[in-house]
Amino acid sequence: MSSQTDSSPLLCSYWFRPDGTAEKLEWQSIAQWQPGEGFLWIHLDRYSPEARQWLHRESGLSRILCDALLAEETRPRCDIVRENLLLILRGVNLNPGADPEDMVSIRLWSDGQRLISLRGPRVLAISDVEERIQSGEPLLSSGDLISLLSSRLIDRMGPVVDALQDDLDGVEESLIDKADAAARGPLSDVRRQAVALRRYVSPQRDVFARLSIEPLPWMSENNRSHLRESTDRITRHVEDLDAIRERAAVTQEELLARSQDRMNRNTYVLSLVAAVFLPLGFFTGLLGINVGGIPGTNSSIAFTVVCLALFLVGAIELLFFYFKKWF
């Protein structure tokens, strides 16, 4: 990004001449720009008090627009009044230590001559756009800049969705041979991330679809064509996220079914053991009561006879279970 001072509310600003070439501006130079001299892009830090003050007092935007651009919680939206565009987009969070599904917002307003954008956490797609500008790529209108930013936001989403698919593939492969309870954590994480991403990616698809058909005079047919392509690409991401959620749900059901089946088998084995020892326990309990008249009390071989009888009864039970195909 641009090397503005830490106290500056300006992250970057460019004046685009009619031929598409760009000149980087400092914060003090923005006020010197005049309409009709190409278009101006002002990119501000939403957390900066000076940026908030400038937006309310010097930008010329209504209070409603300022509040929309500075709102804490936003969802993708596209509002058009006459030739003015309010656009709120989301991008995956690729900042160090952040979760990609904790998507960052970029808020934009444009009347065709000025494009004002704000962000909180860093949006790497903005860095991509600035690199393209600095490399000399001509941008003739705000529509060119918006369509380029939209494309870069979607480009950044692709690897994140692919990584989710790879994670899910790994979990599914680990369950082919063995149902491992340790896979429940990664599986739940994949499903949670897919749900969190889809929460914003799906409405953003609708935003691009609407923007591609709106008759804004400063939006060229080439811009609309690029936005339609962005709509198709983000639709594929939404479909991939839906597929990930469904696969994760099916895999989780399979994991639960295997766990339940294993528990049922263990319960069945314990039931068979109990069925074998129940009559044996009855006989030993009967012979162990403390009353007179128990047979074999004075016999030296009575214990051996009782043990053999118990083994015989147990063998008969096991044969019975075998012929009944209970195990």
Automatic annotation (TrEMBL):
<keyword id="KW-0812">Transmembrane</keyword>
<keyword id="KW-1133">Transmembrane helix</keyword>
<dbReference type="GO" id="GO:0005886">
    <property type="term" value="C:plasma membrane"/>
</dbReference>
<dbReference type="InterPro" id="IPR045863">
    <property type="entry name" value="CorA_TM1_TM2"/>
</dbReference>
<dbReference type="InterPro" id="IPR045861">
    <property type="entry name" value="CorA_cytoplasmic_dom"/>
</dbReference>
<feature type="transmembrane region" description="Helical">
    <location>
        <begin position="301"/>
        <end position="323"/>
    </location>
</feature>
<dbReference type="GO" id="GO:0015087">
    <property type="term" value="F:cobalt ion transmembrane transporter activity"/>
</dbReference>
<comment type="similarity">
    <text>Belongs to the CorA metal ion transporter (MIT) (TC 1.A.35) family.</text>
</comment>
<protein>
    <submittedName>
        <fullName>Zinc transporter ZntB</fullName>
    </submittedName>
</protein>
<feature type="transmembrane region" description="Helical">
    <location>
        <begin position="268"/>
        <end position="289"/>
    </location>
</feature>
<keyword id="KW-0997">Cell inner membrane</keyword>
<keyword id="KW-0472">Membrane</keyword>
<keyword id="KW-0813">Transport</keyword>
<dbReference type="GO" id="GO:0050897">
    <property type="term" value="F:cobalt ion binding"/>
</dbReference>
<dbReference type="Pfam" id="PF01544">
    <property type="entry name" value="CorA"/>
</dbReference>
<keyword id="KW-0862">Zinc</keyword>
<keyword id="KW-0406">Ion transport</keyword>
<dbReference type="InterPro" id="IPR002523">
    <property type="entry name" value="MgTranspt_CorA/ZnTranspt_ZntB"/>
</dbReference>
<dbReference type="GO" id="GO:0015095">
    <property type="term" value="F:magnesium ion transmembrane transporter activity"/>
</dbReference>
<dbReference type="GO" id="GO:0000287">
    <property type="term" value="F:magnesium ion binding"/>
</dbReference>
<keyword id="KW-1003">Cell membrane</keyword>
